[in-house]
Design brief:
Number of strands: 5
Strand order of the largest sheet: 1-2-3
Radius of gyration: 23 Å
Strand content: 25-35%
Oligomer: single chain
Number of domains: 1
Order of helices and strands: EHHEEHEE
Number of helices: 3
Distance between the termini: 46 Å
């Protein structure tokens, strides 16, 4: 399926901003966080998983214009139909692989946070590993 330019921008913005947030949280280091923040972080990455999958499955075509013109001959009853398809074709198909890779990274991160949610005990605002 080919995406429109607006869909590509929206899906890409959410996917890449999620990756940026993941990089920033990794650079902050190992901080003790509460269970509620773990749940919120996991829920935030679920749309990124879905949109990275859509970007990966959409292929290399980004449609910018898709229209049909009908031309009528004024002297006879003949008519012709003309399809106009303008699209941007990604030159390197590695984008599909990179979007699948982002989707796998987000899935692993969500699974890790869910396991962390179930294996940590929260006591007096301090989180301890079980």
């Amino acid at each position: 399926m080919a995406l429109s330019i607006i869909e590509f921008i929206v899906y890409g913005l959410i996917t890449y901003s999620s990756m940026l947030m993941l990089i920033i949280s990794t650079l902050q280091g190992d901080q003790k966080r509460s269970k509620s923040l773990t749940t919120v972080r996991s829920i935030y990455y679920i749309p990124a998983i879905i949109f990275a999958g859509i970007l990966a499955g959409s292929g290399v075509d980004i449609v910018t214009l898709d229209s049909t013109n009908t031309i009528f001959n004024l002297n006879t009853t003949d008519s012709w139909t003309e399809d106009i398809n303008n699209k941007i074709v990604l030159q390197n198909p590695v984008w599909i692989t990179s979007h699948y890779m982002l989707m796998i990274i987000f899935i692993i991160y969500v699974i890790f946070n869910i396991l962390k949610l179930f294996t940590t005990h929260e006591r007096q605002g301090v989180t301890e590993d079980a």
